[in-house]
Amino acid sequence: IPFLWSKGSIGEMFFAAVGATEWLNSIYKYTGEQWGVWSMGTFLAQRHLPAAIGIFLVVLIFLIDQIKENEPKPAGKCETPDEIEDGDLATSEPTATAIQIPSETGVSLSKLIPYIIAGLVLGLLPLWNGAIYVAGFAVIGSMVLFFRNRIETLCLLIVSAVIAVPQILFLRSGTSRGVTELFRWGYVVEPATVWNVAEYFSFTFGVKFVLALIATALLTALHRKLFLAISSLVVLTFCTQLSTDIMNNHKFMNVWLILINAYAAYTIVRLTKVKYAGKMLAAALLIFISVGGVIELFRIHNINTFTVPFGSGPLYAWLQSETQPNDIFLTDNYVHHPILLSGRRIFYGWAYFGWSMGYATGERDKILKRLFSERNPAELTRLLRENNIRYVAIDDGLRNGHLKPTLNESVFEANLEKVFTDTDRKYGSLVIYRVGSGE
Hints:
Layout: H1 2-5, H2 10-18, H3 41-45, H4 48-70, E1 73-74, E2 99-100, H5 109-123, H6 126-146, H7 150-171, H8 194-218, H9 221-230, H10 232-239, H11 250-272, H12 277-301, H13 314-322, E3 328-330, H14 338-341, E4 345-346, H15 351-356, H16 361-371, H17 377-386, E5 391-394, H18 396-399, H19 409-415, E6 417-421, E7 431-434
Parallel strand pairs: 3-4, 3-5
Antiparallel strand pairs: 1-2, 5-7, 6-7
């Protein structure tokens, strides 16, 4: 709405949408609002995220199928829109009140085996995407409170935890500092007053949330209890901090949005059962909640791309023949580069990735700046060996970046052996120097 409202005409709206090169921004200035965290950009940039969500959904669908077999059902209660005849919503509600209660059969090993397998699948998620494992554990853990098959569901959770905990401990090993505070109110909202959080939530998710609430009134008790279990993800997002970067909580809300989409879609389909006015309202709502996604498709189409030569060329040939996989390169803060794509290590890559995992990137940043500014050859060599650096790679990114005023390339050139030169300028006029062993 802010995007379209800022345009002066229908034509300007159209051309701005077709030519979009940024994710849709909201009216808020909170952290992450320009990153597309509530857009398809999340799934474009984090390719592991939709696959991990899919794995969780497979486990959730299995669990819901099992629950439906064990929950009491009002006789004649409509569970899907396909069961509703055309007509007014008020007249489509079932009138039967008899309750069908499944017989108690106890818990046997054969009955637990599918839950154990589901727990194994869920427990494999932490190394794939830890946030989705936490989201799945929270939703399924909440379901224990609301549904009858508690023992089986607890078995699923215990098995998943046995598989997941070693992975989590591995991810938190080494010099990672982990989370400094477990509970945090407000997500990215500052100041995090109740009003500000409610306003942000309503502005960002309000339409789908209202449609989902309407669906809970129209559906069965099972669906209402499932909705409450799903709502645990909102609590996780706005009341906890389980990683160094609070922005990581957006993954909980991404899962929540996917799940409540089913409820919102149900309400829209029910509206189509009401002649004329209902169908018009359903169409308007569908357009209203979809147009942002359409604009984002253009944004994805218009995304900036760059080419990284891979697999062939003089740099790859040199890296493969003259260096070892454990050799460490002092470089610019690369995200993608032939050095990385050749399986070699760099001293300090893109800071966000390490920082968000709890590593002391601030200390590493200071060391990097000192290494690229030290003018004393003996001290520079000592620092390079102290940090186990075997090669130094300097390119135009460093020469023209934030270290340009203090860059000591001349010191490297005068005191270290030059072992590779990018004569064709395919890699930003890259020059690589070898650090002596000192033996």
